[in-house]
Write a sequence for this structure.
């Protein structure tokens, strides 16, 4: 079977860069008998020719040999994670909630101080860094701004 010689103005299948599909295109330019530039017949865009990709031929695989039975591995046992609510209960139990200080971004706070926050409620300060405090609330840990 003879391969048809292509020329400018002929139709060819090409991957359209705008439509993102393999569509009919009109050949605009050829160099050394190779299609270089095409125009999409669907959307009208001009772009370099992207020929249809030929499907890859996979080699036939040899049947796998039967696997030997392996001894099961010992799995590492992780310690159960302590929930933030349990940590909060443990930290707040020795402290008096009536002495809670209202939270303010410009306030200075110390570790193990009870604060009240308008959104998160009552919390205990776990640690303080430069400009931040880590507070344990019943709903979880939060990093808040402070003047520390």
């Amino acid at each position: 079977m003879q391969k048809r010689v292509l020329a400018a103005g002929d139709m060819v299948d090409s991957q359209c860069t705008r439509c993102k599909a393999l569509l009919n295109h009109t050949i605009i330019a050829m160099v050394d008998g190779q299609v270089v530039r095409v125009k999409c017949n669907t959307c009208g865009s001009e772009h370099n020719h992207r020929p249809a990709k030929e499907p890859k031929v996979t080699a036939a695989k040899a049947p796998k040999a039967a696997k030997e039975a392996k001894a099961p591995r010992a799995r590492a046992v992780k310690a159960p994670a302590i929930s933030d609510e349990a940590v909060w209960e443990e930290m707040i139990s020795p402290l008096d909630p009536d002495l809670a200080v209202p939270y303010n971004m410009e306030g200075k706070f110390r570790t193990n101080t009870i604060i009240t926050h308008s959104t998160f409620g009552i919390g205990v300060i776990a640690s303080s860094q430069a400009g931040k405090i880590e507070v344990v609330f019943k709903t979880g840990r939060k990093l808040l701004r402070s003047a520390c």
User: Anything to note?
Assistant: The chain is about 5% helix and 35% strand.
